[in-house]
Structures are given as C-alpha cells and as structure tokens.
Design goal:
The chain has six helices and twelve strands. With about 190 residues, the protein is of the alpha/beta class. Bound molecules: glutamine. Glutamine binds next to helix 4.
Length: about 190
C-alpha cells in the first residue's frame, strides 16, 4: 500500500511519521504526477485557504478531484475544509464531500481543546476498544452532511467532527498529533 500526503502546507510530516509507524510506503505530494500509483491521499491540517491557493498555483485542483473520485482521501482539519463543498465563503475547495463546514467554529487559537470521542467504526477496523482522544486546533465543525455522507463522531451530541462519504473521510481534529494510530488504520481500510 502506498499513501500520499499533500505536502503544500501544514502538518504533513506528522502524518508521514504515523504512516511509517504503520509500515506504509509514503509519498510527499506537491505535483500532479506524484498522485500516480497511490492507493490513497491524506490532506493535512494547516490553513485551508493557503492549501487551496497553493493547490491552484501547482495545478493540482483537477488532478486531486479526479483522484478523489476513484481513491480514498482523508482530510484532517484544514484538509477536511478543503475536501468540502460549502464553507459559506469564497475560497478554493475540492468539493468532493457533500458536507457543509464552519471554519474556526470553536473560536480562536486560545480556544483549542482536547476531547474523548466515541467512534464505533474504529473498533470494527482495528479491534481496539476505547474512546479516541482528539486534539482540536482552531477546528471547524461539520454543520451538515449530505445524503451520501454519514456522521462518524460528534462532540456533545450535536457538533459533528468526523464524517465519511464512501472512501472519503473528514475529521475536524488531528489524530496525527497523538500516539493513537486507530484513525490512520481506519483510513487504510478505506484505501485498501
Ligand atoms: N483554522 C484553520 C482553517 O480554517 C484550520 C486549522 C487546522 O487545520 N488545525 O483553515
């Protein structure tokens, strides 16, 4: 299995580290041709407008969209925003996932927080039990999921922070900043 990590901006190095820990071959993706032969792609956290503008500048928008129609993509935080269809403001979006997102929905940088989430799918994919400790940094909320998408996790009972649409995955938080590999394992099961 070979997984790419979009390496235009943000915390791509942490995702690569985690994938290596899981013995997965990794590629830093900055150019369209680097998508060739990949089984899946992770779009890291960072700043979604910057990631979008750089993706336009590197002629990656269309290649990423066609990759996502065939293969697994996982966006964490800014990556989830970039994957979405609607953020109620003008910025470059891949529009692959039928989710509506509100940026910085928990407040400013100082309002960053951590929370334990109940994610039943992780147990099915990894056989490992227990809540997932999630790190939120100026995180978005997934306000609504479309017909083809489903909710994987929420904070409290209303605020959606993880969703899936077929082989596409979006999380508001950063599993790559913890030592828990279960979300990465779950994504690998979608890329397989
Ligand atoms: N606040 C950033 C944005 O809206 C996302 C933050 C993150 O990726 N941790 O793009």
């Amino acid at each position: 299995m070979k997984i790419g990590v979009l390496a235009l901006q943000g915390d791509f190095a942490e995702h690569i580290k985690m994938l290596k820990q899981l013995k997965v071959e990794t590629v830093e993706v900055r150019l369209p041709e680097q998508l060739k032969g990949l089984d899946g792609l992770i779009i890291p956290g960072g700043e979604s407008t910057t990631i979008g503008k750089l993706a336009q500048a590197y002629d990656l928008m269309e290649p990423l969209q066609s990759f996502g129609r065939q293969h697994a993509i996982w966006g964490t935080c800014a990556g989830a925003i970039f994957l979405s269809k609607d953020v109620r403001r003008d910025q470059p979006l891949l529009g692959l996932m039928d989710i509506k997102v509100q940026r910085n929905a928990f407040g400013r940088q100082v309002d960053s927080f951590e929370a334990d989430l109940n994610v039943p799918e992780l147990k099915q994919a990894t056989g490992k039990n227990g809540p997932f400790h999630a790190v939120f940094i100026r995180a978005p909320i997934i306000e609504a999921v479309g017909e083809d998408a489903r909710v994987l996790a929420s904070v409290g009972d209303k605020r959606i922070v993880a969703a899936q649409q077929g082989h596409l995955l979006a999380t508001s938080f950063h599993p790559e900043l913890t030592s828990d590999t279960r979300f990465h394992e779950y994504f690998l099961s979608l890329a397989d």
